[in-house]
Amino acid sequence: MRPDTPADHITEAERLLRAAAQYPDDHEPLFLQAAAHLELAGERARASTLYDELLTSAEIPVEHPHLVKALKASNLWEYGHEAEARAIIDGIRAAGPLDAAPWEVAAETLEAHDELEAAHDFFSTALTLLLAPGEEVPYATQSLLTGRHRVRRLMGVEHDAWDELAGALHTAAVPLDELHDPKRLWSLGSSDPGELRAEITRLRAELGSYRTALSRPFPVAVLLWPEEELRELLTAYPGLSQEYVSYADHLASLEAALRDLHAAGTPNLGIVAGTVPSYEAFAASEASSPSDPNLLPQYATTLAARGRAVPWPPARNAACWCGSGQQYRECHGTD
Q1: Whole-prediction pTM value?
Q2: For residues 303 and 26, what is the distance between their CA atoms, to the nearest angstrom?
Q3: Strand order in the sheet with 310-311
Q4: CA-only gyration radius of the chain, Å
Q5: How many Å apart are CA 178 and CA 152, to the nearest integer?
Q6: Which of 116-120, 140-144, 313-317 has the lowest mean pLDDT?
Q7: What is the predicted pLDDT for the residue at 1?
Q8: What SS3 state is found at 182?
Q9: What domains can you pick out in the chain, each with its CATH number?
Q10: Nearest alpha-carbon partner for 106 in 75, 71, 140
Q11: What are phi and psi of 222, to 5 degrees?
Q12: Neighbours of 67 (CB within 10 A)
């Protein structure tokens, strides 16, 4: 049953924390989910403690520190720690992370507290950093365009090219301009049945968009073995060498497979990184041998279902998925 009361949310948070202790590979996403439930329960100080644990853990380094910091800032601002929240948000901007999520959380935090100009600046800075002119907009970046459009409508400024792009990417029945029309707030207080019915139609369309985003299927994920993990895998299970001729070939094949899936119209593609210990544990749970190549795609799907997938393709200016440290456009994103 879906958590509904503060006590339900606390119970769910405790369950997630127990799961995090049992599955250390999923420590970060489980902690973030638990913190979200604690916020919904009004336990904001305890949620901040979880964010701090993630950021200071020496045993399990955090994979997405800027996102954790943005969520912490949002939470802090809600229970009276505005100055600390602002300092964290300023730090995120100075760091310039190359993924959309921390920018979006920070911008929406500013927007929620009527800091519209600052929110607009955050959205715009993020898009300038992450979106190269003429490139296909990555799924994760689309929400930045939508958020910026919403803030600009609240500010009453004219549309620009990014607003037009946001509208073109919007697929719901009600146009984005209507969904983000500030006058909708006034309609909610109207006594005119016609206006109220129209507003209900708009709200249903907006809710439908959110449901689609939240219930979208897990990514079609392909499995990436970091170089050391691949070496360990092939040493332990040499029969898999037919699947992985070399590390360079593994990376090239992965990019080619993703491009083929994309060209075929497959949505919501992702990459999951495997480790030998978790693969062996997965094989044991399936009562199968790790040397069975048929187990590899099942392992990838399971990792994706546990929230381990990184969306593909990254923005052309973002770091390449392979971990080389180069920008995607200069590494595996070259045409």
Answers
A1: 0.69
A2: 9
A3: 220-224, 269-273, 310-311
A4: 22
A5: 13
A6: 313-317
A7: 46
A8: coil
A9: 6-134+143-168 (1.25.40.10), 170-216 (no CATH), 220-330 (no CATH)
A10: 71
A11: -110, 155
A12: 23
CA distance 47 to 40: 10
Mean pLDDT computed over every residue of the chain? 86
pLDDT band, residue 329 (cuts 50/70/90): confident
User: Do residues 90 and 125 lie in contact, with contact meaning Cβ atoms separated by under 8 Å?
Assistant: no
What phi, psi does 148 have (nearest 5°)? Answer: -65, -40
pLDDT at 25: 80
Q: Which amino acid is at 88?
A: I
CB 271 within 8 A of CB 309: yes
Place of tokens 């016609």: 194
For the record, the structure tokens of 8 come out as 């339900």
Torsion region of 307: left, alpha or beta (phi above 0 gives left; psi -120 to 50 gives alpha): left
pLDDT tens for each residue of 28-59: 888 998 999 999 999 999 999 999 999 998 77
Please give the C-alpha separations between residue 334 and each of 39, 96, 97, in angstroms, as whole numbers: 43, 23, 22
